[in-house]
Amino acid sequence: xxxxxxxxxxxxxxxxxxxxxxxxxxxxxxxxxxxxxxxxxxxxxxxxxxxxxxxxxxxxxxxxxxxxxxxxxxxxxxxxxxxxxxxxxxxxxxxxxxxxxxxxxxxxxxxxxxxxxxxxxxxxxxxxxxxxxxxxxxxxxxxxxxxxxxxxxxxxxxxxxxxxxxxxxxxxxxxxxxxxxxxxxxxxxxxxxxxxxxxxxxxxxxxxxxxxxxxxxxxxxxxxxxxxxxxxxxxxxxxxxxxxxxxxxxxxxxxxxxxxxxxxxxxxxxxxxxxxxxxxxxxxxxxxxxxxxxxxxxxxxxxxxxxxxxxxxxxxxxxxxxxxxxxxxxxxxxxxxxxxxxxxxxxxxxxxxxxxxxxxxxxxxxxxxxxxxxxxxxxxxxxxxxxxxxxxxxxxxxxxxxxxxxxxxxxxxxxxxxxxxxxxxxxxxxxxxxxxxxxxxxxxxxxxxxxxxxxxxxxxxxxxxxxxxxxxxxxxxxxxxxxxxxxxxxxxxxxxxxxxxxxxxxxxxxxxxxxxxxxxxxxxxxxxxxxxxxxxxxxxxxxxxxxxxxxxxxxxxxxxxxxxxxxxxxxxxxxxxxxxxxxxxxxxxxxxxxxxxxxxxxxxxxxxxxxxxxxxxxxxxxxxxxxxxxxxxxxxxxxxxxxxxxxxxxxxxxxxxxxxxxxxx
Length: 665
Fold this sequence. Notes:
By secondary structure, the chain is α/β, with parallel strands linked by helices. The protein folds into three domains: 21-285, Rossmann fold (3-Layer(aba) Sandwich), CATH 3.40.50.1820; 296-505, Rossmann fold (3-Layer(aba) Sandwich), CATH 3.40.50; 530-664, Galactose-binding domain-like (Jelly Rolls), CATH 2.60.120. It contains 20 helices and 28 strands. A hairpin with a 2-residue loop joins β1 (47-48) and β2. The chain is elongated. The chain starts with 20 loop residues before the first helix and ends with a strand.
């Protein structure tokens, strides 16, 4: 078999069907050989087929890498996921060509989250200590596919290609044996123990290699599977065929090569590979030449780190994490991946997640809705905050941005002095154009100003996207596609956040550290931003409160701004009065196709008009936040507001629909 032994890869197989006694004795004999080999594994010399082998361990798991005599530039490498001594001819070829070969033993973990933590550490070790390239080729033999695909789907940005040989792609097939496959009773039991699953949970498992392939397809990771139609242990119809079908449906590049030539062993699961150089070509051509990529570390600043949150997650075993942002935070993607990553990294920790993303909202809405949408749900230990995209789109001025962001930081810190906060600056075409013109976007300047002043970590993905586009690492139209990122962008956002979390976790944490807040950057910052209920307003008969407002014109709505109480009027001359205390006053409205123009005065000053109609109002009842004044003197004030008889030329009416008043003391 291409110079290799035919030792069984599935030595623990216990088929669900009866097997002839002679086959049973053969399997027992193979098991004896396996145990003998395992017992002598630690006595192996530090060479492998004439190449130097470097042995070490990660968290008690034996690991090694094999060095080529003349490494290629950039140190490309192939990562074997299981059965390191099976069909190694392709590895030998790669070593002679200048590629490294690496392996870590996490057998009997079935690609579990625990195994993925070890894989992450192994990967980081090789990059840091051996200067390996950032995107290895992966080899996945049999059950090794459970590991390779689990890690690749968590890290599609770090994989050049995947070679699978008779790959296990669905645990229901193997070891579950729930279909045409023979299954393995002992391994199925072990799988459930490793994952902590009941029988029902194991069958319902939705992160098999066949599942959730969007990220790999988005990063254009090519796949090559060698399979046998005679395979009764891991039937291709339940495994590779399904994965290939799913991947191609997502636009992924994949090839299945059928090896039906005899002889075949272990119920068709083992076969001869006559041309291992074809596999070597695939693994090498997709990883070399090594492409230059910009490191994620270039685009975030740890500053004072996240030690308080990490202490709570690692030591106290309980933590609350909140996500405050617009549609990029609301939509599934990076946020879900961060949540999964935290749960996998700290499996014994009880996490509470607060999802406070609402499309279209930037820093001004955030600072006034923070109390209700975030802090009223619990004491926050880690806050992810993003506003840079919508602050540009919504036209929020520079001073207000600083007041908003600082107000959020101080409000969160007041509620929980040990809270950690990450400011995230996401990408959009306008920011890319600014950077291309040598201009740092004002939203980025303000996010960084507040983050630096308070020692908070920040991530400038807007700059990263510009730089990586210029470096031809990806294409905006084909990969990122929109300021609401496609799968590629979501993976990129998550990869940055994950890298920040990992690097912060490298620093020792021994206790909660509290630091007094410095004096305010801007004395007018909205540090006590809050909503005032619409019931506080006194109004004439033209106004009414709809306790469960729903639009009647068929236009779209945003979460949190439909099926809520709304104070509304649509007749010119309708008036209301609001008494309040504090330094800031405004209102949060829904602006639809009939939005009008209102006129307001504070404390008897001259009336000012505001057009409630926006560029989006023709197709959406947009949540729209309007700040009447943010520089009032402390104390009591009176707001008077009335609907004028005029309206925007594009509007169909003179309506005003108020969801909340905005106030900061």
